[in-house]
Amino acid sequence: MDSSGRPYSKAFEILRKAGLRPTRQRLGLARLLFENGDRHVTAEQLQAESAAASMRVSLATIYNTLNQFSQVGLLREVVVEPGRSYFDTNTSDHHHFFHEETGLLQDIAGDAISVGAIPQPPAGTTVERIDIIVRVNNKVK
Amino acid sequence: MDSSGRPYSKAFEILRKAGLRPTRQRLGLARLLFENGDRHVTAEQLQAESAAASMRVSLATIYNTLNQFSQVGLLREVVVEPGRSYFDTNTSDHHHFFHEETGLLQDIAGDAISVGAIPQPPAGTTVERIDIIVRVNNKVK
DNA sequence: TCTGTTTTTAAAATCATTCTAAACTGTTGA
DNA sequence: TCAACAGTTTAGAATGATTTTAAAAACAGA
Asked: Which residues of A touch B96 (CB under 8 A)?
């Protein structure tokens, strides 16, 4: 971690490596996203956070940025509910618990679930990735 | 299979067992859904099909029916893309290939993927189900 | 058949997300 | 340093899937 005094240097580096212009709003959002460990955020949550940090960023830019970050591999979009997108700052191989009542998403380390035999993908296709979502709730069995 | 002449008897039975009133539109939709093997449909697709079969069913009823059927376990909702819901007539334990370019969803038999060690669910929660989505595309590796 | 409850419906409303076109900012080269 | 252009941000409108509304229609039991 190299945040040697200059608060935006880490975010700046991340953007530079990704080939994205270091604009004011991208730098600010990158800080929120990547300087607090692994996170799962929706666009609305990120907007609330940036407002709380008194950054002026439009919702359109939040969406643009989340999508761009996903495209360059800085984020991973996790689809658990119709009509709401989560973005995960952990892009390494791993899976999720999804708490249906609260909407909470939790990482499961890649090696904590072992997927055995993966069947042959349909002809002409390549496996892009495997998503495993373990849906949990508070019901008594 | 007991479709002894009376075309709606199977659909009627399904609704009766589920405790849902056998209305004209529920019977018609149940026929479309359950008398053609395993299927994955969206609300719009089902609407198009019912129109093609010259049934008069509003889109609101299609949505109501798909949700009710899911609640009573006749259908399983599969979430693969933000902003579009698929309903699967196969409610047994199984998983899916999802073809990102075409939106095509294909079943993977439950025993064709072996999930090894499932980690302990978070305290106070029970595993509701495990969804595995194998995302495939046409890209050359 | 009558009556009360459920269901269906068209239309409006909602919600997350994307688009638009104009204003603004970052970068490059003179 | 500054002009000039491409890339970015923005407010607001637009979109698209889904849900809600409130009223009309259909179903079930007596």
From this structure: none
The answer to whether the Cβ–Cβ distance between B134 and A137 falls below 8 Å is: no
Q: Is A71 on the interface with B (CB under 8 A)?
A: no
pLDDT tens readout for residues A57-69: 999 999 999 999 9
Residue with tokens 């149940």: B30
Q: Which of B63, B99, B135 to probe the A interface (max A CBs under 10 A)? A: B135
Q: How many helices, marked H, and strands, marked E, lie in chain B?
A: 4, 6
| B contacts of A84 (beta carbons < 8 Å) | 82
Question: d(Cα A91, Cα A80) in Å, to the nearest integer?
Answer: 16
Residue B42 CA, chain-centre distance (Å), reads: 9
Q: What is the pLDDT of residues B67-98, one digit of tens each?
A: 999 999 999 999 999 988 999 999 999 999 99
pLDDT in tens, A64-91: 999 999 999 999 999 999 989 999 999 9
- Measured CA to CA, the distance from residue A43 to residue A86 in angstroms comes to 8
CA angle A56, A58, A63 (to 5 degrees): 130
- Where does the pLDDT of residue A135 fall: very low under 50, low under 70, confident under 90, or very high at 90 and above? very high
pTM equals 0.91
Give A-chain residues touching B137 at CB under 8 angstroms.
Answer: 125-126, 128
pLDDT tens digits, one per residue of A32-48? 999 988 999 999 999 99
Q: How far is B85 from chain A (nearest CA, A)?
A: 6
The token pair that represents A123 in the structure block:
């002809």
